[in-house]
Amino acid sequence: MDVRYVTSALQAEHLPTFDFPEVAFVGRSNVGKSSLINAVLNHNKLARHGRTPGQTQMINFFSIAQKLILADLPGYGFSAINKDVAAQWQPLVSAYIERPQIKEFLFLVDSRRELTDEDWDLAFLLGRNLPLYILLTKSDKLSRQAVQTRIKKLREEVTAKGVEVKQIRAVSSLNKEGIDALRADLLAHMPESVPSQIVTDHHQSI
User: Fold this and answer.
1) Which of 4, 12, 68, 187 is the Cys-Cys partner for 204 at CB 3.0 to 4.6 Å?
2) Any idea where the domains of the chain sit in the sequence?
3) What is the spatial distance between Cα 143 and Cα 12, in angstroms, rounded to a whole number?
């Protein structure tokens, strides 16, 4: 299956139009989003890793087999982001999440951290459109029992706050926990059945 970088958008008016379903990865600046996307797509350089959290403030779009679009949204919650750049984040993301072709919001949460008010605000915003698919990242940093306890507690929290959730899954880009299952869930959004093995086009990486 062909996986390639398509384009990026820095402002709402630059958002491209696609005829394919989309899935969106959303999370804090230091949650491990780029590493997870690269693990899911079986590519170690497709999504960029910034040395400084919050460095990338664009929405990056990737195509899977020219049948599914994966959107990597800019990270949020990093205090050192330039104020002018941070001011662009909200209108860009607010415009993006209203797109009718979005089939899944993948909301990334560090498995070791409690959700902040900022996290909950975004969860409520995204949850107005679709049930959230919550990914607890960096699960390799916790014991299996601690991960299960974290999932149980988070499920209770989202239920209490009235946020509709489709799935809560622990994932790790390091030991690949949950990666195969996540990949299968994403590929299920393709309009036609396609092979599950991802073959990347290295010439199209960013």
Assistant:
1) 4
2) 2-204
3) 41
Query: What angle (nearest 5°) sits at the alpha carbon of residue 189, between those of residues 186 and 195?
Result: 70
Q: Are 136 and 169 in contact (CB under 8 A)?
A: yes
pTM to 2 decimals? 0.85
* Nearest-angstrom CA–CA distance, 108 and 12: 22
N residues, the chain = 206
CA distance 70 to 32: 16
Rounded CA-CA distance 107/26 in Å is 5
Query: pLDDT of 105-135, one tens digit each?
Result: 999 999 999 999 989 999 999 999 999 999 9
| CATH T-level assignment (fold) for domain 2-204 | Rossmann fold (3.40.50)
For residue 136, the SS3 value is: strand
The separation between CA 59 and the C-alpha centre of its own chain, rounded to angstroms, equals 11
Token couple for 50? 């910034």
Secondary structure (3-state) at 139 = helix
